[in-house]
Amino acid sequence: MGKSTETHTSPRRKLPSFPPEKPQKEDSTAGPVNLESPGDQSDQKTKLVNLWIISLFIKVLLFVGYHSTDFDVHRNWLAITNKLPILQWYTENTSQWTLDYPPFFAYFEWALSQFVPSVVAQDGCLDIVEKGMYGFPTVVFQRTTVILSEVVLFLALQKYIDSFKGQIGRSRALVVALSLVLSPGLLIIDHIHFQYNGMMYGLLVLVIAYARQEQFLWCGFWFSVLLCFKHIYLYLAPAVFIFLLRAYTLNLQYDTKKSFFHNAIRFVRWTNLLKLGSVVISVFAVAFGPFVYHNKIPNLLERLFPFSRGLTHAYWAPNAWAVYLFMDRILIQVYKRIPLSRLPLHKIFHFNIAALENEDLLNSATRGIVGDIEFFILPTITPGLSFLLTLFYQIMALIPLFIQPTYERFVGALTLCGYASFLFGWHVHEKAILIVIFPATFLVLKDIRLLNCFSLLASCGYVSLFPLIYTCEEWLIKILYTLLWYIIYYFSFRKVASVTSESYSRNAGGIFLVERMSSLYVLGLIPMTIIVSLIELLKTKFVVLEKLEFMKLMIVSVYCGVGIIGSWNRFNWLYFLDESIWQRTK
Amino acid sequence: MAKSAAKKKQGSQPSPSIKGAASPPLNPYNSTPLYNLLCGFRRAQDQWVARYVTILSAVVLWSAVGLGLYSGMGQKPINGDFEAQRHWMEITTHLPINQWYFYDLQYWGLDYPPLTAFHLWLFGVVGNFIDPRWFALDVSRGIENPQIKTFMRMSSIISQLVFFVPAVMGLLHQLGTQKKNLTRMNHIIVIALILYLPALVLIDHGHFQYNSVMLGLFLLSVGDLIKGNLMLASVWFMSSILFKQMALYYSPFIFVYILARLFTPKKTLGATILSFSFGRLVVVGLTVIVTTIIMVFPFLLAASNGSEAVSLIKQILIRMFPFERGLFEDKVANFWCSTNLVVKYSQKFTHEQLKLMSLVCTIGAFTPPCVMIFWKSIRRQSHNPDYVIYGFSATAWAFYLFLFQVHEKTVLVPLVPTLFLLLTTDRSTIAHVQWINNVSIFSLFPLLKKDGLSLQYYSMFLMINWLMGGFTLSTKSNMLWPSGSNLLSKLVIVSSYLVIPIYHLVEHNILPPSRFPDLWVIANTTFSFACFSWFYLWLMYKIYNL
């Protein structure tokens, strides 16, 4: 009797244990689309852990496959941190693969090196040598550490899912989580190429999850930890900084009843500032303290920020500079083949004609060998210009975040900061595309219009990773796995993304055309991949194709670069001009 | 108050009962991780995605297994099955057709039927176009590089996609539509289980062979047999035999079943017998002959005169059926190899006697299932597709257990039709079939270890069992647990599941005594033989009760 009274009179307290009750509430607020029929809601959903386990088997099978020099890099770091005292970590240079990640990563490598079994140590895993001599046991050990460290990502995503209450929200969070756990980017970069991105992005997911729950201290804590693991995330730091500043430490409400002086003091929430500041500073103190103590900070900074590198990596990342370089290469051909164009070209760009007449230099450039001169006709890009452009676009993204510090704006600003740094940064690796894709994933389900630009971003971004794995044996895996991911998630995202009345009305106009165009562009990746693969396949057959060796890399980066810039434009459009997406919905 | 509580309970869970009415309430697969992975696509309009996802993921899996070593990699001068297939591409593309079966027989002479030769010729032509160095005559022997490896891996993947995958999907669709208590998701789950089939994946894409083509052709034949297209069924079946002679394991049953289908079941036995359709028999017979002639026609065409044609055909047959080899070659989990521990056959009997003994035993083993199903088929009005699956499985197991010159890889022949029994809601059957699937993988372990495929073996083994819920302790969702079987079956299955991990622990950590270097291999084959025999008896029992 008592029991039934309780269930009858206070259903609210029982809510967590009765999932079917809550969605009815959610349904009414979720907009016109409720694709899941009520019968399905009581049914089971794919569990994150199951997907993780099934991907585990594929990852284990990849043990025997190709791995890049990054493998030896990390092996060398294991050796350095294991064999040397901490003060030599950032000065050791027997191998060219010196330690150039921040201290937490070094500590992490040190911790891993404590678990190296004797079989693996005998295999040469912990030798400080110029070039690693290791066998299968080392591969198994290091690959296993990547798989195990990816648990961070899995737990972070599980936390993210658990922070949702309603059925609809949960199923959306689940789709986001599943797509990240199975991300082909992680498979290609971590499990074939070899890096520890799974763990890094796990920490980033934690930052986002805590931001969603408005637990700002944790958000700041995890972001500082992340920065001390890998400094590439400095690119995202402006967004996190502005978000925490505005949402946690500033108080912009002007109380007209109190004096100006009172308001000026109240402008900063001092206790919050103190709490956040001490959290961040203590994380950095733990990381950099030992090096400050040993006075090794200059060495450390020199390693972390090597400014001597060129604008582009040997293989062009698909960003604005790839397109810019491509324009330059086109203009060279125009200049060489069309005599009439020479004068106007020279008038416009004021380039050095002598360099263009030097055939060796020109050939090395068109073959993609990184030389002193990167640009022949178009003006040279300086690190300062690249930095200014990045900063400009980041600041543009931060202004709306400062005005409206919602979670949605925050993730949007993170994505745009990632975009700016990827598109305009100096010496960007193609692997850095994950820094855009990961935050963007969290936004997709907010509105169906974001899905379209996300699908362009993700497909171009992941396809641009293909040249990273150039071995023929992995060819089929990387392509099919990406295709599989795309099919599953484009389909699932479409199903659960919310369609607002806004997106319907907009669809009627020119946007419809834009979306069709971007879908076509994504489809165009298929013939592009086929052409590039055919060039690769038949290069021994036809000598002409061997000359095109660099051409195929250029095709990939320019095609993907244009796609990513296109998705960036669309994203900017929605970010700056569409208020409805970015408002807080609880 | 109590009334309101009851009402609430009723109201809070209306959907399961509605769903229960629409689909079977006790679908055992619904609690497995495999179903859980696919459940996002369970609605009818999404199921096509599930199919493509299953196939794509299977291909990813095959190519991931293909990253591993292949048989005889780096083992000069003779290498292994991989080199044999590559060598055949080499000779078929460079030599005139009448020399294919004669050229340098000491170095991997062609010993598969003509269709294999044509199949390899086709891939050889493509490969020669891409890089002629891969298949340069004689020069390319033992060639090893990532490119040729990738090419060969791709050839086996494409073969499986073209022949095996459509056949599996077609057959499952056919079997499924006749079982009303199954949902489409069930079909997709069984498709996944068969496409991920560890034994086949490890042999075709790890060790390297093209079994999937032979099995695919055979499954196409089964599909037509169930439909009653006896002619088409015999065309597919002859193609299967002419691709790989191993398909002969199925032949007694297909003969018996076609014969049974020529009768029209009537009320009395006499009327049934009188209904026998001689016309259709002749047509089927002619189909078989014509198919064979078409397949060997290129050889006849190449022969300059009649006697050369005869000698060519004779050579093909000699190469296909090497009767002169021993009772068994390597250690294999069949009757002869296992009982050889007690009775030393090669010392007690002559080669001829052994051949006769093996033949008699095999006939003795495959006759009971054939006769039972023949009898049941002509006595019943409706054709139960289960007869075909049970019949082929039992016959093929009989061959595997008692024929001589059986290879461990041959376990695929009985295993593949057996797996189609997974399309059921009967927990006991599922558990038995998955059990024999596991034992089959286990029986391949010595071979795979020799090939350096231990990692692939363990991952595939764990994966398929995990997909079936094999690592949960709840007997409700663990498909390996034979609920509903009798105590003896449970005992056999559980104890063998205990033996397998123990075996691996012992085998991995302890070297065999120097007096018996093959001790672990023999332990493996003997154990597998015991399990296979038990399964054969279980099949008999099931057929009897059909």
From TrEMBL, chain A:
GO terms for biological process: protein N-linked glycosylation. It is an enzyme of class 2 (transferase). It catalyses: an alpha-D-Glc-(1->3)-alpha-D-Man-(1->2)-alpha-D-Man-(1->2)-alpha-D-Man-(1->3)-[alpha-D-Man-(1->2)-alpha-D-Man-(1->3)-[alpha-D-Man-(1->2)-alpha-D-Man-(1->6)]-alpha-D-Man-(1->6)]-beta-D-Man-(1->4)-beta-D-GlcNAc-(1->4)-alpha-D-GlcNAc-diphospho-di-trans,poly-cis-dolichol + a di-trans,poly-cis-dolichyl beta-D-glucosyl phosphate = an alpha-D-Glc-(1->3)-alpha-D-Glc-(1->3)-alpha-D-Man-(1->2)-alpha-D-Man-(1->2)-alpha-D-Man-(1->3)-[alpha-D-Man-(1->2)-alpha-D-Man-(1->3)-[alpha-D-Man-(1->2)-alpha-D-Man-(1->6)]-alpha-D-Man-(1->6)]-beta-D-Man-(1->4)-beta-D-GlcNAc-(1->4)-alpha-D-GlcNAc-diphospho-di-trans,poly-cis-dolichol + a di-trans,poly-cis-dolichyl phosphate + H(+). Its EC number is 2.4.1.-. Pathway: Protein modification; protein glycosylation. The keyword Methyltransferase does not apply. Its main location: endoplasmic reticulum. Keywords: Endoplasmic reticulum, Glycosyltransferase, Membrane, Transferase, Transmembrane, Transmembrane helix. GO terms for cellular component: endoplasmic reticulum membrane. Residues 1-42 are annotated as: Disordered. It comes from the Eukaryota. The chain crosses the membrane at residues 48-68, 140-161, 173-194, 232-252, 273-293, 313-332, 409-429, 450-469, 475-493, 520-538, 550-568. GO terms for molecular function: dolichyl pyrophosphate Glc1Man9GlcNAc2 alpha-1,3-glucosyltransferase activity. The lineage of its organism: Eukaryota, Fungi, Dikarya, Ascomycota, Saccharomycotina. This is Alpha-1,3-glucosyltransferase. It is a multi-pass membrane protein. Pfam families: Alg6_Alg8. It is found in: Endoplasmic reticulum membrane. InterPro entries: Glyco_trans_ALG6/ALG8. Belongs to the ALG6/ALG8 glucosyltransferase family.
Automatic annotation (TrEMBL), chain B:
It is a multi-pass membrane protein. Its EC number is 2.4.1.-. Keywords: Endoplasmic reticulum, Glycosyltransferase, Membrane, Transferase, Transmembrane, Transmembrane helix. The lineage of its organism: Eukaryota, Fungi, Dikarya, Ascomycota, Saccharomycotina. The keyword Glycosyltransferase applies. Belongs to the ALG6/ALG8 glucosyltransferase family. It is found in: Endoplasmic reticulum membrane. It is an enzyme of class 2 (transferase). Pathway: Protein modification; protein glycosylation. The keyword Glycoprotein does not apply. Residues 1-10 have a biased composition (Basic residues). It comes from Australozyma saopauloensis. One of its GO terms (molecular function) is dolichyl pyrophosphate Man9GlcNAc2 alpha-1,3-glucosyltransferase activity. InterPro entries: Glyco_trans_ALG6/ALG8. One of its GO terms (cellular component) is endoplasmic reticulum membrane. This is Alpha-1,3-glucosyltransferase. The chain crosses the membrane at residues 52-73, 112-130, 151-173, 185-203, 215-236, 242-260, 281-301, 356-375, 387-406, 455-475, 487-506, 518-539. Residues 1-25 are annotated as: Disordered. Its main location: endoplasmic reticulum.
